[in-house]
What does this fold into?
Amino acid sequence: MLANRKISEEHDKVFVTGCLDPKEEVNKPRANAAFVVLARNKELDGVIQSVKSIERHFNRWFHYPYVFLNDGEFNQTFKDIVRNYTSGTVEFGRVGPDMWGYPDWIDPKVAKEGIAKQGDAAVMYGGLESYHAMCRFYSGFFYKHPLLAKYEWYWRLEPEIKYFCDITYDPFLHMIENNKTYGFTIAVKELRETVPNIFRYASAYKRLNNITSQGLWEMFVEPPTQPPVEVPENDPNYKPPLPEEIMRTDPGHTSLPEIHPEAMEGESYNMCHFWSNFEIAKLSWFRSKEYEDFFEMMDRSGGFWMERWGDAPIHSLAAGILLGVKDIHYFRDFGYRHTTIQHCPANAPARQLPHEPFLEKTTPENKREEEDQYWAQWDEEKENGVGCRCRCDTDIVDVEGKEGSCLAEWVDVAGGWASP
It folds into this structure.
């Protein structure tokens, strides 16, 4: 099982294997960081699920603040209920039309037609105007929102997610100590039909700015095809070439080599990306001139509207161009689920500590005890396990061993497997 194989620690390693005592960890200073949640009033139940999960598994000890953003206004009910569940301070903000919706340089009529076509072609979420706006917001604007101006780090929290392991250390502090810029927990392949031209533009940015890969770009590129091996004439497998007159009549002989429709400079996108509904990242990277220039070029292509570019491939390709492998951290010890994709590690042998009850007052008493009992019975420890008191969902398999996972591509650039 891949989830139990050890990855090389040449460029990156799990910050903490197993559990620490959070009561000791909380004595350390806090990072200048916040959770960021983009949600609407109607998503309140999903927001409660996510907040309850992150509070139980992490924030009940660390009390980091939350920033809730909405392209409309949050109603009072939403605000009051959310405040009941959070242990950190909470701010609510509106995303204005300057960050949401059509930029002034695109014809909304043309964009709407493009979106309608994607809907007709059954491109996933392609027909939803608000989804396009959301992807563009998370690609190039969230870090400029006034409520985030004071923060240096962010942890993205999506409605309807689940955490499975206790996080008994401060990931922000470890990112800072280890000089990391961007952290992920799941890497998967994008749906090809959502990003037909994304790689052309990303690759063009890299080329126009004469940027040399620092080793991460290769994670997102199809491996080069090997030229056929020439067999010597004395080899039993040697096949003599066809006579010249046959070659001349062969219809394929003079045709040009096939060119991959999405290839640039002989490279093509393998569709891998860090799944950005979870990410912990340094906001100064997004705010840097290099990232801003990259976003501007991608944005001006119109791909957020005429295609359905997600913020995940945008963040990932930007990282591939601008960052090195050493700047990235794989939070392999975080158990996390969004929709039908989950990563959940095995528990670390001899590194578990007793469960600390979390009887939050928002749940009715009988249910509260039941919930806490559930998390008190964690999964068995396994060799090479890295988790702390993880209890994984069993209805779906771990993404690490699933088709469509990009763990192998990450492992390749990160130094390979360290155990068989």
Remarks:
- Residues 30-219+263-344+392-414 form a domain with the Spore Coat Polysaccharide Biosynthesis Protein SpsA; Chain A fold (CATH 3.90.550.10).
